[in-house]
Sequence to fold (221 residues):
Amino acid sequence: MIPRTHLATARIPGGPEMHLYSRGADHMILVEREELMSTRMSGSEEALALMTAERLGNRPKQRWLIGGYGMGFTLRAALKVLPPDAEVTVAELVPEIIDWAKGPMADLTGNCLNHKRVKIVVGDVADRIAEGGWDAILLDVDNGPDALVRAANDGLYGPVGLARAKAALRRAGLLAIWSAGADPRFTKALHAAGFQVDEQVVRARQNGKGPRHVIWFAGVR
Fold:
């Protein structure tokens, strides 16, 4: 088995350290001993963008907010299917994540960070949500509503955070939230916040295999 090589470390604001490793051509990011993301499994992150785009259709001048960048799977999938006049803002809390995308993972990143329709913002996605006027808000922050990495992420998934997200969406906008697993309490919270909820189970790998992840698509009228 090819040994794993440690490449870099970053501190999550208000949270623990994360570590970038490589094994052959693969990369993975761990928080403490738990794998947070990996180039081996991108299917559900891509589905987050593709299924959102399918639900929104070809409405003109779409404004998307993606939080956070991760390994860029969601962003690159979005750029492949969005209409030419769409714009995408990506909010990434950890600046080193963007440095890693430009450095050790540059081959994976391609030109998505420099795409003319993309704006990269280093900071809390909650601040970008507050700007409002979004057709879609896609959250792949932490491992889902349980806020494994950063306790402050609870503010995104609690009643106040959901109310702010709902108010920030345009008419018929969509809040899409990725999670490593099911969470019936969060489904109820979305309903309580006044969203129309479509909960989908998606596989972690592009080939339809791997762990089952969950995406909530929460719509507003």
Remarks:
- DSSP finds eight helices and eleven strands in the chain.
- The chain has one domain: 41-219.
- The two ends are 52 Å apart (CA to CA).
